[in-house]
Design goal:
Distance between the termini: 64 Å
Structural class: alpha+beta
Strand content: 15-25%
Number of helices: 15
Helix content: 40-55%
Shape: globular
Number of strands: 11
Largest sheet: 6 strands, mixed
Mean pLDDT: 95
Strand order of the largest sheet: 1-2-6-3-5-4
Low-confidence stretches: none
C-alpha cells in the first residue's frame, strides 16, 4: 500500500499531519512549535533554545529522570532542536510504541519550568555559548548574519549572547512560553506505520485544555544588507571567509532553481568551488548552499585556507558566482537533478525524514506538497530558470566577512 497523506485540525487548534505507510517498520513523531529565534526580542535573545532545554527538565508530575527512563523504556531515538523559525521535539520508535511517544512528548510540551531547573540550566547554556565562541565558523557566521539582516531577529544568535542569557529571568521565559507554545502554533507530524485517527484522538485529549494564543502569527520580512568587514582574532590560526546574499523564499517557486544553482556552485566533491579552490590547493574547504526561510531566503558561501590567501579565495568565489549562469550546462543540470532526486528518494524511505519534512514544511507553508510533487517541480527546472534566478538574486551581491589571525 502506498504512502497516504492525512491532515486534521483539532478542536484545540493543534494541526496533525501524517504520511502513513502501513508497510513501514518504524514510526516517527514530531511536535513542531512554530517559534524560534525569529520570534524573539533582542532583550530575550536565546529564550527559544533555552526553553527547548527546559522541556527536558520535566513536567509537574514527571521529573527529568522519569522522562529519560520513559524514552529508554520505549527504545526511542529522540531529540530536539531549535532553529530560527521552529522548535522540534521528535522520536522514532517501533510502531507498537508510537502511542507512548505521542503521549510523552505531548506531556513534555506542558513543562513545569521550575526556578531551580532554570538556574541550573542557565549555566549549561552559558557553557554552550562559550564553546561556540571557540568555533571560528560560528563566530564569523553570527557576525555576518547580524549585519546582513541588520537588526532583524533572523540575525539573532540561536543560543543568545552571554549578556542576554545572564539577564534572562524565568518570568520572561514563562511569558514567552505562554505566547508561543499555544495549540494554534503547534503542528504534530507523523510518519510511518501509525493509526492516524487514533493518534488524533490521543493528541486531542492531550491538548484540549491548552489555551490558544493571542500572539500575532505574521512575521516581518528582513531587508538584506551588503558590505564587507574583517575580523582579527588571536585565537585563530587559519583564514575564513563567509557571505550571505538574498535568495528566494520558501514560498517562491524559484526555490527549486535556487537549490540546483547552489549545488552547482558549492556542493561537496564536484562543484565550481571545489574545482577552482580545493583541487588547486588555494583553499582547504569551500561550499555554497541555499537556505529558504518564511518570506525570504539566503545564499550561503563559506571557505577557509591560509590567512594570507583568504582575499584570493574570496575573489575566486566571486568569479565563480558571477560566471555560474554562463558556465552551467544541460549536462550539469541533469547530474545535479539526479543527485538531489537520489537524496530525496532515499530520505523518503525513512519515516523520520518524512516526519521532519512534513513538520518543517508546515511551519513555513499552509499547503501540502508530496515528495512526488517536489520531484516533479525539480524535474521542470530549465537552464533558463537557473539563469533567471541567478540574475534576480546575484550570489556575489552579499554581506561578506573575513576572519584572520590578529598578527
Amino acid at each position: 500500500m502506498a504512502v497516504t497523506f492525512h491532515e486534521k485540525r483539532l478542536s484545540s487548534g493543534v494541526s496533525v499531519l501524517g504520511e502513513i505507510d502501513p508497510a513501514a517498520h518504524s514510526s516517527a513523531v514530531g511536535y513542531f512549535v512554530r517559534t524560534g529565534t525569529r520570534d524573539e526580542e533582542r532583550i530575550d535573545m536565546g529564550v527559544s533554545h533555552f526553553l527547548e532545554h527546559m522541556l527536558f527538565k520535566g513536567t509537574d508530575d514527571l521529573d527529568a529522570d522519569a522522562l529519560n527512563r520513559a524514552f529508554d523504556a520505549m527504545g526511542a531515538r529522540h531529540n530536539a532542536y531549535t532553529s530560527s523559525e521552529q522548535t522540534c521535539y521528535h522520536a522514532q520508535v517501533v510502531p507498537e510504541r508510537a502511542g507512548e511517544a505521542i503521549e510523552l512528548i505531548g506531556r513534555m510540551l506542558r513543562p513545569a519550568l521550575r526556578d531551580a531547573d532554570f538556574d541550573t540550566e542557565k549555566g549549561v547554556i552559558l557553557e554552550e555559548i562559550a564553546m561556540y565562541d571557540d568555533e571560528p565558523f560560528w563566530v564569523l557566521y553570527e557576525k555576518v548574519a547580524e549585519r546582513f539582516y541588520e537588526g532583524h531577529p533572523l540575525g539573532y544568535r540561536t543560543l543568545g549572547t552571554k549578556e542576554s542569557i545572564t539577564a534572562l529571568t524565568s518570568g520572561q521565559m514563562r511569558a514567552y512560553f505562554d505566547r508561543r507554545y499555544a495549540p494554534d502554533n503547534v503542528h504534530v507530524a507523523l510518519a510511518g506505520r501509525i493509526d492516524f485517527d487514533r493518534a488524533c484522538e490521543q493528541i486531542e485529549r492531550l491538548t484540549s485544555a491548552w489555551t490558544p494564543s493571542r500572539d500575532a502569527h505574521a512575521r516581518s520580512t528582513p531587508g538584506a544588507t551588503g558590505g564587507r568587514f574583517d575580523v582579527r582574532d588571536d585565537k585563530v590560526s587559519r583564514g575564513y571567509v563567509l557571505s550571505l546574499a538574498a535568495a528566494p523564499s520558501a514560498q517562491d517557486e524559484r526555490r527549486y532553481a535556487a537549490a540546483l544553482a547552489s549545488q552547482a556552485l558549492g556542493a561537496p566533491g564536484n562543484s565550481r568551488l571545489h574545482w577552482s579552490l580545493i583541487e588547486p590547493g588555494i583553499a582547504e574547504e569551500a561550499q555554497a548552499s541555499y537556505d529558504p526561510h518564511d518570506g525570504c531566503g539566503a545564499w550561503f558561501v563559506f571557505a577557509s585556507g591560509e590567512p594570507e590567501r583568504i582575499d584570493e579565495v574570496w575573489d575566486v568565489c566571486v568569479r565563480e558566482a558571477k560566471g555560474l549562469a554562463d558556465a552551467i550546462t544541460q549536462d550539469d543540470l541533469e547530474r545535479l537533478r539526479a543527485k538531489i532526486r537520489t537524496g530525496v528518494t532515499i530520505g523518503g524511505e525513512r519515516p523520520s525524514d518524512r516526519m521532519q519534512r512534513l513538520g518543517r514544511m508546515r511551519c513555513v507553508r499552509s499547503d501540502y506538497l508530496s515528495l512526488e510533487d517536489e520531484l516533479a517541480s525539480l524535474a521542470r527546472v530549465t537552464l533558463k530558470d537557473v539563469r533567471d534566478v541567478l540574475a534576480a538574486f546575484p550570489i556575489e551581491r552579499s554581506m561578506v566577512g573575513t576572519l584572520r589571525p590578529a598578527t
